[in-house]
Structures are given as C-alpha cells and as structure tokens.
Amino acid sequence: MEWIEPCPLKVNLCLGVGHLQADGYHEVETLFWRLPSPEILTIREINVNNVRDRIFRSGDPFAGEHLVRRALDLLRRHGAVLPPLEIGCSKVVPAGGGVGGGSGNAAALIRWARRYGFASLLPEETGELGSDVPFLADGAPLAWGGGRGERLLPLSPGVQAKGFLVFPRWVSCTAEAYGRLDALREACGLSQELPDREEGERILSDLRERRVVGLLPNDFVSVSESLHGEYREAWALAEWAGALAWGLCGSGSGWFVVLDPRADATSLGQVLGRLSWVRRLVAWEG
Q1: pLDDT, position 145
Q2: Is there a catalytic annotation at residue 162?
C-alpha cells in the first residue's frame, strides 16, 4: 500500500516574542496561517520481516536528523502500532527559511497516522518536535498560537489570497535568531510586549476585506534587517507592487508577499526572480 500526503507550510501574520522562560524557551504569541506546499510525503509499507524503517529525501538537502524520523519515533512512543515504513520526502523549500518546512513534513506523517487510526497525538505531544508542528498537524487554516506554539485557538474563515514565498541565499538558525533578539533588546532597551488576539483579528479583517496592511508585525524583523539590508529592499518592492501585506517568515530567513487574489502577479514575480540575493521563489494561491 502507498499513501501520498501533502506537507503544509506556514507563515506568521504577526509574531511576538516574550521573555526567556525557566525551561529555556521563549513564550510567543502568533497568528499562524497555513499555506499550500509543493512538498509531499510518499509512505509505503515494507512487507518484509526484520526490516527497519527507511526514510529518504529528494531535492533540497537538510542537516542533521530529519523531523520525519523523530515524528515516527514519537508516534510509536505514544502507542502507534505501525509496520516498517518506507517514507520518501520530496524537498523543495530550503531549510532555515522560517516556513516550517521540516515541521510540515513531520505534521504530514502525524496527520496520516491520525487519519488511518494509528494514533492521535495532542498538541503538547506534537510540540516536542518543534513550535510549528502542533499547528501544522492540526489542519486549521488559521490559528492564534501561544506558549511555545502548542496552545492553539483555530480561527475561521480563511483568507483568499495569493503571493510569493521568497528565500534568500542565506539561512537563519532559529536558536541564533532568538539569541540575537535577546541581545538587541538588552542593548537597545526594546520592549517585550506580546501582541494580543485583537491585533491578529484586525490583520485578518483587513486581509479578508482586501485592505492594505503593509509590513506585518514580527519581533525578528529588527534582527534580520540589522544583518541583511536586503530586507528593506524587499519591503519596498512589495509596496511598489501594491501588495496587501508582506513580512518575515517566522524568525527568517524567508519572507513573503500577500496579494489580492485578483491581482496580476507577473511583474512582481519577474522582478523578484531577477534579484541576485534570492535563491528560490515559490508562488502560492489559496
């Protein structure tokens, strides 16, 4: 038997980072938005005795242990009786882009296990794999997230839009981004106030009514701009194109543009594709 599972991505329509907690993690408040992804998982049963799981990937490389392996181990620890599996992961989105690429791969496996009755994990359990996994495994198009991302409040309806995910030639390490944010706040006396759900609701209302929001609030923007001035060029291009909204993907390095679904995205796509510092461009619509 073979199953094909789509792997979701996410962007943050707002992202606030609080104090470092005793457990070594920062509290966050964020508005998650699920986007379609070109990545898929191919899952097959291995009908041979004494054979271990096989996990392989094609496309863009990644470093370290893949989250799909950890998700498989997590499912079995929580009682899933799974046969040996061969799992192929078709990678398109660069690692370190801030869109939850690896998290979406893991979430696809968790949703597959839930759909076919192998196991149904709680958000605090899937959160062991990363802050984006609970949302991506949940299936809601939008959700307000708190804690480390495991406290979720699904929101509806969704937003009809299209746009681009833009991945530069540099990557962002999440742990390093948090460390730089802490250092910047200490040096400059920046506030650590978290956004509230009302701010997220205002952003959603504007996008649903196709009103311009502009640069979306994200505490990591100041860190990213201090390292790479190209982000300011990115925001100017999005504004020039008449975009509804634009912003940083999570803690970076990717960024995204939200367009009216009726807009012609051809000119913006051509301009973005010619930028020397852009590594990959992914168009989306939903």
Answers
A1: 97
A2: no
Q: Which of 10, 91, 138, 219 is catalytic?
A: 10
pLDDT digits (tens, 9 = 90+) for 87-114: 999 999 998 999 999 999 999 999 999 9
pLDDT tens column, 120-148:
999 999 999 999 999 999 989 999 999 99
pTM score above 0.90: yes
> How is the chain split into domains, by residue range?
2-155, 162-285
Could you give the 3-state DSSP secondary structure of residue 209? coil
Q: Report DSSP letters for 106-121, one per residue.
A: HHHHHHHHHHTTS---
For helices 101-115 and 67-77, angle between their N-to-C axes, nearest 10 degrees: 30
Out of 23, 60, 73, 132, pick the active-site residue.
132
Could you read off the pLDDT of 24-40 as tens digits, one per residue?
889 999 999 999 999 99
d(CA 49, CA 229): 56
* Known binding positions: 94-104
What is 216-265 written as a DSSP string? PPBTTHHHHHHH-THHHHHHHHHHHTT-SEEEE-TTSS-EEEEE-TTS--
User: Which of 79, 169, 78 is closest to 128 using CA atoms?
Assistant: 78
Q: Which residues are annotated as a binding site for ATP?
A: 94-104
- Annotation marks residue 10 as catalytic: yes
> Which class in CATH covers the domain with range 162-285?
alpha beta
How far CA 163 is from CA of 26, 88, 202, 264, in Å, comes to 30, 28, 20, 10
Counting other chains too, the contacts that 126-129 makes at CB distance below 8 Å and 24 or more residues apart are: 126/74, 126/150, 128/74, 129/67, 129/70, 129/71, 129/74, 129/103
Quote the pLDDT of residue 173.
92
**CATH number for the segment(s) 2-155:** 3.30.230.10
- pLDDT tens, 175-210? 999 999 999 888 887 777 888 899 999 999 999 999
